[in-house]
Write a structure and sequence with these properties.
The structure holds two protein chains of two kinds. Chain A is mainly alpha-helical. Chain A is built from eleven helices and two strands. A two-stranded antiparallel sheet of chain A has the order 1-2. The chains are: A mainly alpha, B alpha/beta. Chain A: Belongs to the binding-protein-dependent transport system permease family. LivHM subfamily.
Chain lengths: ~280, ~230
């Protein structure tokens, strides 16, 4: 049971990293980034391609891939998303959704649908007292907690974080108070993408690296973001780990429901709190 | 200090402001009076650069600011106090105060803000929206004073507040006026307006239809209140 719970927290790490990026992007831009899963997939493929073609190891990929994809995200925001922003939000939904399909199919065309092998950067297991657990999984959980915690500290304790929070809550008022909100939008989008890519690289050694890995995961991540409260950073991280835990335990006790449990949870939360656990009503 | 020339604004096809021209001199307090929907809030939003569809020109401190974005106007010394007070729920009281960058040399240091508004010091670590309505209004005013704004645009700061707090806001406005700050104030409470302001403009259907001094406002107080539907 405890081991299952731990498995759940490890899956929750990926949910949390992806939901965190989605939440800051949605908060600041009002855009639901449907391409988020595709960037996660590209992160894993980035690590695979670097290793396979250039012999670049995991540790370098963990830094390089998020930076490169983050910059690509900034370019995407500047070239396309920014131009569609004044129009109906539907246009950016369609843009990012189309982009996700294109990225997926380009990778599929080149690598096919079968999974690519990626070796673990280190093996071994750690004795956690009641059970032993693969060391890499423990590493993933620790790193993702550290990253989420750092983002939380930056958001709550720094001037940049204060500006991001203010711009997320009341973009127009924030401009009227002398803050150049537009200047912060591209970097925040790029940062969200970089987090997705980072999660992708982390996933490469333990998940199947294939073109559909992002699409499979992102549906659950959307449920996580809704449960946590759209645009709520703390909510999305907490809900990420909670959903990981709930689906792992659900898998153990009611395997038949393992796929649907997350959505039952989402429906229940929405009935109880329509803005999500940590969402604000006005954010709707 | 502020010169508005034939300013018009639209919401889609509907015209909200019709060639409004007005001037405010340095150190003056000028009020805009009018019924709901007359265009007062739209006028302040236009001055702040928050309204999309406009024509006409706005000059501030001798510079044409018509084409500037809101943040540039704020940095030139316009201080905006919106009608809903604009207090952030996700920022603490102190963060609300520290968010806008300092724009003028007469900026109030945080210490002075806290001396004037001791309640804000007590509550400085609380989320901004945990304050009472009157405290939120004080916070919104203190926030623009801390930036050293030269011209305050205040959208009905006394709305829904108790007489005691209205009096306190009056004291603050007189104090900032004495320090040379200029204020353009939306105000339905004409009695209050006559105690703080120098001149008054009556707005109806997007136009300035009448301009009055304090004596005239006092003489016509009942007629004005009747007209405003209060």
């Amino acid at each position: 049971m405890l081991e299952q719970a731990f498995n759940g927290l490890v899956s929750g790490s990926f949910y949390a990293l992806l939901a965190l990026g989605l939440a800051v992007i949605f908060g600041m831009l009002g855009v639901v980034n449907f391409a988020h899963g595709a960037f996660y997939m590209l992160g894993a493929f980035g690590a695979f391609i670097l290793l396979d073609s250039f012999g670049v190891n995991f540790w370098v990929a963990l830094f390089v891939v998020p930076i490169v994809l983050g910059l690509a995200g900034i370019a995407l925001e500047r070239l396309f998303i920014q131009r569609l922003a004044p129009l109906d939000p539907l246009y950016n939904f369609l843009l990012t959704f189309g982009l996700a399909l294109i990225l997926q199919d380009v990778v599929k065309h080149r690598y096919g649908v079968q999974s690519q092998p990626y070796p673990r950067p280190f093996g071994g297991s750690i004795d956690l007292g009641l059970f032993t657990y693969p060391a890499y999984q423990v590493f993933v959980l620790a790193v993702s907690l550290a990253v989420c915690g750092t983002v939380w500290l930056v958001l709550t304790r720094t001037r940049v974080g204060m500006i991001v929070r203010a711009s997320t809550e009341r973009p127009e008022l924030t401009r009227a108070l002398g803050i150049d909100v537009a200047r912060w939008v591209s970097p925040v989008f790029g940062f969200g993408i970089a987090l997705a890519a980072f999660a992708g690289v982390l996933a490469a050694p333990m998940r199947a690296v294939n073109p559909l890995m992002g699409a499979d995961l992102i549906i659950t991540v959307f449920a996580v973001v809704v449960i946590g409260g759209l645009g709520s950073v703390f909510g999305s991280v907490a809900a990420g780990f909670a959903v990981g835990l709930v689906s792992a335990l659900g898998n153990l006790y009611v395997p038949a429901l393992s796929q649907t449990l997350v959505f039952i949870l989402m429906a229940a939360v929405l009935l109880w709190r329509p803005a999500g656990l940590f969402g604000r009503e006005e954010a709707l | 200090m502020l010169r508005v020339d034939r300013l018009s604004a639209w919401y889609g096809e509907a015209q909200a402001l019709r060639e409004v021209s007005l001037e405010v001199a340095e150190g003056e307090i000028v009020t805009l009076v009018g019924r709901n929907g007359a265009g007062k809030t739209t006028l302040l939003r236009c001055l702040m650069g928050l309204h999309g569809k406009t024509s006409g020109t706005i000059e501030f401190l001798g510079e044409d600011i018509t084409a500037l974005g809101p943040h540039r106007r704020a940095r030139r010394g316009l201080g905006y106090v919106p009608d809903d007070r604009g207090v952030y729920a996700t920022l603490t009281v102190e963060e609300n105060l520290l968010l806008p960058p300092v724009s003028g040399k007469d900026a109030w240091p945080l210490e002075r803000v806290y001396e004037t508004f001791p309640r804000l010091r007590e509550r400085r670590r609380f989320p901004g929206t945990k304050l009472s309505g009157g405290e939120q209004q004080m916070l919104a005013l203190a926030r623009v004073l801390r930036t050293g704004a030269r011209l305050l645009l205040c959208d009905e700061p006394t709305e829904g507040l108790s007489p005691l707090i209205v009096q306190q806001i009056g004291d603050i406005l007189r104090e900032v006026k004495a320090a040379g700050v200029t204020v353009l104030l939306i105000e339905q409470n004409v009695h209050f307006a006559a105690t703080v302001a120098d001149r008054h403009h009556l707005i109806a259907e997007g136009r300035i239809v009448e301009s009055m001094d304090n004596a005239e406002v006092r003489a016509r107080e009942h007629e004005l209140l009747d007209y405003l539907g209060i």
